[in-house]
Amino acid sequence: MIKNIVFDFGNVIMNYNPDEILNHYELNRQEHDLLRKTIFESKEWSEIDAGKIDEKQATNIFINRVPDNLKKKVNQIMETWPENIDFYEPVFNYIEQLRKDGYRIYGLSNIGMKFANFVKDSEMGNYFDGYVFSAQEKLMKPDRRIYEKLLARYMLKSEESLYIDDLKANTNAAKKLGMQVFTFKIDKLGELQDYIASH
């Protein structure tokens, strides 16, 4: 029986799409493409999630890689991008219902601390009973140790916990630890609801 429901963030509770994030800034096509490659497709972006560098260090690296006219824009994007993410309202409405039904809700995400803190400090933070973030733990999914941290920290039984992620490699890793899993895309919300209702 499921008692705990653990959500990944990117493409589960929100639409993580660098192009759509960059559309919020005044950029021509060339600038848009350059900043997508420089920031979101860089190795440093993954290193932020892994906790190897922080956002401030990464910002300085990115600023040094762009022409002078884009340096301020890099700074602006790195400061404000979490505000320009589209969150999936139907998913949050469903989480609210799950909480009312007595489920415990957790977040487990490969994410940097700027975005993690943005979620925790916003109204969305009220939806969760706890979190494990890769940057804080310096561990990345699908490393089994990050799932074990979540289970141990909140004293969760793996067989009573459902893990929801958009990437099969991540749900497979959770499954190996005895967790129930669901590989999610937003158009599968109805399937997820049916799965939880029947377990």
Task: Write a structural description.
It contains 11 helices and 7 strands. It is elongated and about 55 Å long. Strands 5-4-1-6-7 form a 5-stranded parallel sheet. It folds into 2 domains: 124 residues, HAD superfamily/HAD-like (Rossmann fold), CATH 3.40.50.1000; 67 residues. With 199 residues, the chain is of the alpha/beta class. 48% of the residues lie in helices and 14% in strands. Helix 4 packs antiparallel against helix 5. The mean pLDDT is 97.
Key terms:
Rossmann fold; alpha/beta; two-stranded antiparallel ribbon; 48% helix; HAD family hydrolase; HAD-like_sf; PGP-like_dom2; 11 helices; 199 residues; 2 domains; HAD-SF_hydro_IA
Secondary structure elements and pairings:
Layout: E1 4-7, E2 14-15, H1 18-22, H2 29-40, H3 43-49, H4 55-63, H5 71-80, E3 86-87, H6 89-100, E4 104-109, H7 113-121, E5 130-133, H8 134-137, H9 144-153, E6 161-165, H10 168-176, E7 180-183, H11 189-197
Parallel strand pairs: 1-4, 1-6, 4-5, 6-7
Antiparallel strand pairs: 2-3
Short description:
By secondary structure, the chain is α/β, with parallel strands linked by helices.
CATH-wise, what's the superfamily of the largest domain? HAD superfamily/HAD-like
Subunit organisation of the chains: single chain
Q: Give the biggest sheet.
A: 5 strands, parallel
What's the CATH topology name of the largest domain? Rossmann fold
- Distance N to C terminus: 6 Å
How does the overall form come out from the CA principal axes? elongated
CATH architecture of the largest domain: 3-Layer(aba) Sandwich
Mean pLDDT: 97
Distinct helical segment count:
11
Q: What number of structural domains do the residues give?
A: 2
- Helix fraction bin: 40-55%
Give Rg in angstroms: 18 Å
InterPro entries: HAD-like_sf, HAD-SF_hydro_IA, HAD_2, HAD_sf, PGP-like_dom2
Pfam family, one: HAD_2
Protein name: HAD family hydrolase
Keywords: Hydrolase
